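Before relying on records like the one below, remember that each one covers exactly one chain. Contacts with other chains, cofactors or solvent are not represented anywhere in the record.
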Amino acid sequence: MIRYILFLLVLSNINSYSQDIFAEKKNFTRQDSLRGSITKERIWWDLNYYHLDIKVDPEKKYIEGYNTVKYEVLEEKQVMQIDLQQPLKITQVIEEGKKIKFKREGNAYFIYLKKRQSSGDVNEIKISYGGNPKVAVRAPWDGGFSWDNDEKGNHFIATSCQGLGASVWWPNKDHMYDEVDSMLISVNIPNNLVNVSNGRLREITYPDDKTATYHWFVSNPINNYGVNVNIGDYIKFSEVYEGEKGDLDIDYYVLRYNEEKAKIHFQDVPKMFDAFEYWFGPYPFYEDSYKLVEVPYLGMEHQSSITYGNKYLKGYLGRDPSDTGWGLKFDFIIIHESGHEWFANNITYIDIADMWVHEGFTAYSENLFLDYHYGKQAGADYTIGTRKGIQNDKPIIGPYDVNKNGSKDMYSKGANLLHTVRQITNNDELWRKTLRGLNEKFYHKTVSSTQVEEFISESIGIDLKYVFNQYLRDVRIPTFEYKIDENGLYYRWSNSIDNFDMPLDIVLNGEKTRLFPKNKWREYKTKVNTIETDKNFYIETKKKVSK
């Protein structure tokens, strides 16, 4: 949970360089600001606990219920912002057994509390709501509720809402900076179906002869979009993984007719844990277990409830994103979405402008999975192979405070940035220590990109400020220019930001050599017979003809 002082420290550290100079220019609305900024109606209270209790009617595609919000008062204010997206509506708010007033402004609701809010008090309100939630158009990218049917005609339903926001289907404080400490999720559904949500199943109750209510408890902090509902004709099988922190319960929920197929295909899961606990440290949610849940869309990183829809194929729906062959050695969705347990669910961006902290690191985790199981060259070749999809259309980091992410290059370009930093580090054990250190330092915290960047620089002992600014906040790929004459090698960085500073490994006359190019020409006095730049650095190379 982020406390008030930490809010201010984090906000002051967010690098305005990206927003003021390089970020996409766009006119944003007040609704964008209400959704994307830490408003005065949000900052004065700190989330402690949610109890989300809803009934899902598959036939009517309708949901209704309530969310009990428990919070600590940080400042003595009386107006609270809660978010819920249309067409859903808040119907009433209860404080200490009495209805209180609220006002809607678009997708933001302002609740006027009657009880005096004294600093340090822990209070709660109960928010009732209902309606037909937004139907996902292309889940998980354009999310909401996915109302589908399996091959047997049974209802097959799931939620997804990253970016769009959890308020698309339940009322909450819909900003990433404040994660709730714990949460109970109660979902009432037809009793011929099964609901799977986050955390551990506490109990199943039967309020009548037609429905069942599944009660799932999350004991760790969880971000809003990580909360999910999955409903289907599920069958469960399980195993125990012997991990760094002891026994980890792993549960698989798949459609009944896919059970035998899944038991074979899901063998990538323990292999994933072997690699990621080695590189990133212990799985961050032992208390809540790990689940892999089949859904009617591709998949998503819902905390401790990873959703899966890759059709039991290796690669990305049977394709290799790198065209190297290495991408067909694993199921992309199992590895990528599970990697988010460390980078997204453990370490969570404070603002979606810094979404690369989720996607860049997790795209890079695919490299490290291959590295662990097939060798360092396999991981490198895979990541280098994904460069072909990089557009360099706009900066990876987007504008802050308006719920807007940057370029989709955050995946492959983010991974190649990190692969480049590994080369700069030039010490694989130190690099591993740095990745594990990130997950320890920012354990269950929300962070800015700047905090992550500064931690990496400090950990490896090299100032990477210009490297991160170049790859995250500019669209140009730096070019290593060189020319050769009888006196030796002349080299510099071009197509780069001012004062760009990044070492580069080359093979000079058959021997590995590290150069330190700047924007101005530098000289290396030696006879040059052959020269080749290290392809693990994400750069362009240009030879100039000497005059």
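The two ends are 62 Å apart (CA to CA).
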